[in-house]
Specification:
96 residues, mainly alpha, 3 helices
């Protein structure tokens, strides 16, 4: 999630479509990470007999939760990515 070079240090400017897409992608990745952490902390995906247990199960469960969080974001998420994106674009456009 590299954001360097997108936030101007001097005068405000309009975002190019490429810059806007990079900000949107970073915002969506941040929302997915947040959702994955919330799902993990809530115990989502923990079943005692799933795949027989062991270290592999916990790693697989982590990948499964990450994928589910990404799908939640793709389906519209909880609005966090949109709020982050709006906040960042306002800063770049000099509105804040």
């Amino acid at each position: 999630m590299e954001l360097s070079g997108l936030l101007p240090s001097t005068s405000p400017k309009a975002l190019s479509s490429h810059e806007a897409e990079k900000l949107r992608t970073a915002s969506e990745k941040l929302e997915a990470s947040f959702l994955a952490q919330m799902l993990k902390e809530s115990g989502f995906g923990k079943t005692p007999d799933f795949a027989g247990g062991g270290e592999g199960e916990s790693q697989f469960t982590s990948f499964l939760i990450d994928a589910q969080a990404e799908k939640i974001v793709e389906a519209g998420g909880i609005g966090l990515a949109e709020q982050i994106f709006k906040s960042l674009t306002e800063r770049v456009d000099g509105i804040s």
